[in-house]
What we know:
The chain is α+β, with helices and mostly antiparallel strands. The protein has a domain at 1-40. Helix content is 54%, strand content 21%. It has a four-stranded antiparallel beta sheet, with no helix packed on it. A hairpin with a 2-residue loop joins strand 1 and strand 2. The protein is elongated, with a radius of gyration of 21 Å. The model has no long low-confidence stretch (mean pLDDT 75). Zinc ion binds next to loops.
Amino acid sequence: MSKKTEIKEWKNHEGEVVASDNGFDVIDCQRCGFKHIIHIPTVDELENIYKHDYYKEEKPLYLERYQEDIDWWNMVYTQRYKIFEENSLNELNNFENWYLTMSDSDVF
Length: 108
Ligand SMILES: [Zn+2]
């Protein structure tokens, strides 16, 4: 019996689908080396999951699971922080450019 495999890609993650549920696929990601879900949930989606399902139904396993997934979560939070950092720098640069342009004009 041969198993049909499906490769999926999401942003810069790509790998074989190993499970699917609830509109999410778990891929064996070749890019980052983790098995993880795609799409990666947004902060809002995560809050929803935690508020409505996770704590109610799976809380007893919460700490255990978190430990298992700690490397993965570290990576997610590191990425988020990097994005935040880059955006903040961009905004600062934009403000500086805006300020320099304005201070050359008659407005100030
Ligand atoms: Zn990945």
